[in-house]
Amino acid sequence: MRTMTGQSAAGGGETRRDGDGHDHGDADGQGGGDAQRGGGAYARPGTAVPGRPRPPRQPGRPDVFTFGETMVALRGSGPLKLGGTMQVSIAGAESNVAIGLARLGHEVHWAGSVGEDEAGELVLRTLRAEGVEVSGASADPGAPTGLLLFEPRLPDVTRVHYYRAGSAGSRLTADGIERAFRAAPPRVLHLTGITPALSPTARSAALHSLRLAREYGSAVCLDVNFRARLWTAGEAAAVLGEWIPSVDLLIASDDELPLCLPPREGSGGSADGGSAAGIASQAGRLRELGVGEVVVKLGAQGATAFTHDGCLHRSAKAVRAVDAVGAGDAFVAGYLSALLDGDGPAACLERAVTTGAFAVASLGDWEGAPTRAELGMLGAPPGTVVR
Asked: How far apart are CA 75 and CA 73, in angstroms?
């Protein structure tokens, strides 16, 4: 996933553009004021009820429910063919987001299937230790827990090798997800484009979760997270296009937006391009299709949110890059966290680029995710010692 942090100036600022393209300063820093802030029953965004996603506040409902495949991750110290040492951890886009949210104080439920093996025990033990509820997860005696290997080849280039074909995680079923969802209907259902690419049963489980979200009034967040090794762009577009009318918050890199849109007539399937105008056009089309809020990740240039108020940009945080893996998941966790708090787009973007920066400045997929008390540490001058 493309990193949200890099060489851009620290801090940055926001610019909001209204429908006619004029720039406006965001005086209160909330991108929309009290009318957007938490509370109240959930209403699907769209032409009839304009507005941003408003996750329902109901006692007893967890903040977020997510599911997918989490694997054992082995990180090498150099080229795998030369041997050497490897660090053992876990990794999975959805569980990375779950851990990031749990560290920020949110109640998160994760469901998935792991093998009935030591690797599966490591996955569940780690998630429980991080405060993620895993009672909806299952152990599959007929398939192993998936594995991925990280192979650093250059200071800024890492190769990832997957061993997940036929894994327990790919054998997710709609029945298993339904049981976990109905046991504790969430305020937000978080999905990625990885899970439907794993297998037909996993794809059916993801589609069924959208129906459950509609039934229980849960807001839906989708991080496109396209993986070319798992499926083609055409296959992804066919599935994601079906999902889009059910999505309240869409998070995508600029090159992933076309996967969510039907091709324009006469375009031959080509996208509008990666220019600012092209991205704004694509985001506008997605909002016309019913998406309440579109957030576009722009790598080292930061991120832009497109809402009913217009468009709002936030620059990336300048940090010393250590490991870009997991930065996109950390960004999603930060954005969702602020949204759950009832904050406006400016505060959501600020928290998202902050959590993304923590990920880039730390080794591992999720290990560097900050707690709420640590969010302000990026503003500390170099050499600061916290006593």
From this structure: 6
Environment class of 13 (CB within 10 Å of its CB; exposed 0-12, middle 13-18, buried 19+) = exposed
Structure tokens at 104: 């920020």
Rounded Cα distance, 292 and 16, in Å: 17
Catalytic residue list: 329
Closest CA to 364 of 317, 330, 313, 318: 330
Q: Are 219 and 53 in contact (CB under 8 A)?
A: yes
Output the DSSP codes for 34-96. GGGSS-S-----SSSS-S-------TT--SEEEE---EEEEEESS-GGG---EEEEEE-HHHH
In one-letter notation, the amino acid at residue 206 is A
Phi, psi of 54 (to 5 degrees): -130, 90
Model pTM score = 0.85
Total residues belonging to the chain: 387
Which of 305, 322, 347, 338 has the alpha carbon at shortest distance from 3?
322
Segment 174-212, tens digit of pLDDT:
999 999 999 999 999 999 999 999 999 999 999 999 999
Q: Helices H, strands E: what count in the chain?
A: 8, 16
Residue 319 has pLDDT above 70, yes or no: yes
The fraction of the chain above a pLDDT of 70, given in percent, is 84
Give the span between the Cα atoms of 130 and 337, in whole angstroms.
16
DSSP 184: S
Contact 330, 369 (CB under 8 A): yes
Is the Cβ–Cβ distance between 19 and 329 less than 8 Å? no
For the chain, what is the radius of gyration of the CA atoms? 20
Question: What percent helix, strand, coil does the chain show, rounded to 5?
Answer: 35, 20, 45
Span 22-66, pLDDT tens digits: 333 333 333 333 333 233 333 443 333 356 777 777 778 999 999
Integer Cα distance of 351 and 333 in angstroms:
9
> Which run of H or of E encompasses 330?
helix 327-340
Confidence bin at 10 (pLDDT 50/70/90): very low
